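Section 5.1 Outputs to date
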Amino acid sequence: MSLTRIQVQRATTVSPWTRDFRHLLPVPKHFQNRQTWFDPITKAVRVKDRIKYWNVVPGDQICIRGDTRKTIHEVLSINKFTNRVYLKGANLHEGKPYKTPVNRSVHYSRCMLYIGEQVLQATSPGEQSKAISVFARRVGARDPHWDPILYRWNWKRLVLATDPYTPKTKIELEWPQPEEREHKEPNPLLDTTPEAVREITYKPPVFSLSKLISLQSDAAEKAYLRTLFNPSAVPFDTSAPMEVHLTKELSNPHSRAKKQARWQAAVKRKSTLFKKFIAQELKNINGRSIRDARAEAAFKYRQKLEEERKSEKKRRWLTKDRLEKMDRKSKRKARKAEKQKEKLSQLVLRDAPNQFIPGKSARRQEA
């Protein structure tokens, strides 16, 4: 399935997981054409420049490559179509309250993942050991596989090069853990209490098995339906459970069991119909071989199924609205034809020298 304009415009996500690789599909060029000034700008880099396995995801702590102060930022969201990483708390319009806040974004290649702190030992007697931040300059993806339980792609993030340099390489980075949701205390005036939720309010009627079997008869069901439309017609036992008589109406007609039962009935009917055609052809073989007779039966069977399909299609097409429209159209055509016929019957021509009336002109010539 190809991409849509909305999918490309709303490609920025806060989810750290990769569930598919649809961001590698080509984006049509006409998506970048804005119909009005209010339409958002649609951007996307070339397919060969997009990143398949994203190692920088929302929740990671990064440092921007080239930053001498080594400021640590947290990733807010990512856009896999533009290779942009949005930072949390970095507002481009800071100090301008009249403008909409816009988070700062950097390219994926400028992000260095934060690994941790490393203590540098003092080289001289007067110096003290100090801790420095270590960042991943290069990160590789290892062992990518599909997780059928979590419905997402998983792989290991291995650090291949660090900044500053450390002899320890191929460090496996853990994926960021989502923040736990804070569950607020329920408001007793607005929320339902747990005691009310656990309370059993429905009490099914108590009746014996013999009474249930007697209630499932057609006579009891008809009496119940007559009582609904005319309560004073026939006395009815009001203590009887209502669910017994409305089983067909209350049950879901699109349940899996009922659809399977209808499908099995249709398959059985087709099989019976095919056997019927074969029996008829074999009964009147008329010098043909059994193989030819079965082939003729199969041909007639397919014709019958095609006729049934067309008739069912026409039956579904002839809805109540279409029938009413066809009736109005036929009546309108009849009125139009009647008016034309009336106009032709009441047509009167004035006498003129260039007219030829068969009866009148013949009498004139005789005179």
